Amino acid sequence: MPHLRPVAPEVLAAAKAQRRDRTEVLRVLLAEEIRGREEATKAARRKAAGLPAGKTFDSWREADSSIPAQTQSALASLE
């Protein structure tokens, strides 16, 4: 369970100090593992899709596009 390892010491220390129930501690640790796995799966799917990432409108060349300028500006401003 690689995703709960980084947070486990902190969660366990807080649980011990606050005298939390063991089931609550386990629930928190498992929720963190699930969140980490979901993020890893999402990242793997994005990478496998091969979609361009990190693109911004700053690098967009409006003159090179076949999309009308009015449509481009509407998309850029999220109207």
How is this structure best summarized?
The protein has 79 residues and is an all-alpha fold. The protein has helices at 8-18, 22-49, 69-76.
Topology readout:
Elements: H1 8-18, H2 22-49, H3 69-76
Helix pairs in contact: 1-2
Structural write-up:
The chain is mostly helical. It has a domain at 1-51. Helix content is 59%, strand content 0%. It is built from three helices and no strands. Helix 1 (8-18) packs antiparallel against helix 2. The chain is elongated.
Largest sheet: none
| Percentage of residues in helical conformation | 55-70%
Order of helices and strands: HHH
Class per helix and strand makeup:
mainly alpha
Low-confidence stretches: none
Global Rg: 22 Å
Number of strands: 0
The best one-word shape is elongated
* Alpha-carbon distance between the two ends: 43 Å
Overall pLDDT level: 86
- Hey, roughly how much beta strand do the residues contain? under 5%
Total count of helical runs of at least 4 residues: 3
Protein name: Ribbon-helix-helix protein, CopG family
Region (Disordered): 39-79
Biased composition (Polar residues): 67-79
Feature tags:
mainly alpha; elongated; single chain
